Every structure is written in C-alpha cells, then in structure tokens.
Amino acid sequence: MVTAPLLGMHNRIEGQWMVSFYLTVFRLVKAIARSWQHPTFRAGLLLAVALLLSGTLFYRSVEGWSWVDALYFSATTISTVGLSDLSPKTDLGKIFTVLYIFVGVGVFVALFAQFARALVRIQDDQDSED
Prior knowledge:
- The protein is an all-alpha fold.
- It has helices at about 5-35, 40-65, 65-80, 90-130.
- Helix 2 (about 40-65) crosses helix 3 (about 65-80) and helix 2 runs antiparallel to helix 4.
- The longest helix has about 40 residues, at about 90-130.
C-alpha cells in the first residue's frame, strides 16, 4: 500500500516533468517560428512532412498496415530509432525502406541542424538580455 506522502511526492515529480515538457515544446515552437523566415528551413520542413506522408501512404498500401502503424514506422525509420516491432514483409517494402532511409535521414539531419541553430540563437539572445 502506498502512503499519502509518497503519493504527494509522485504528483510533484509528475508535475515537474510536465513543466519541463511544456518548456521544451515552447522552445521548439519558438525555434520553428524563428526559423520559418528562412526559405531553406521552410523547404526542409515541408520536405520532411512530405517524406513522412509518402512513407505512411506507401506502408499503408503495400504492407497493409494501419495509418498509425505506417506513420509510426515511417517516423522511427527516418529518425534512425529503428524499433523492431514492425518490419516490411514484402520485397517491395524492403527495397523502399532502404531507399527511404538514405533519403530520409539526410533530410531530417538537415532539419534538426536548423532547429539546433535556431535554439542556440534563442539561448544567445536570452543570455545577452540578462
């Protein structure tokens, strides 16, 4: 049985985690907003979204996966997380996945580099204001 003080501690830890999560999301949105003025960032973001959509559509139609499974696999493949809970069963799916990795990893690395530059600029601006 869990005592009341332990439950209170759990709620505080969960609350602190949520604050951290919201701050991270806020910084990400701020980085996107700051980067949006650069045409290369917009093109990279649109290309990344197009890659995720095309992968999702491909795996949905060729492998017969649900929309969520197809999007999940597309995202984990391009991000190089590569969990093994799903994998293509058809030869066409396997060949597509190899090409998808080569193209997708490069696009996402470039996009995340843009995010990183924007976040560093935000941090530099905050430091100069202090």
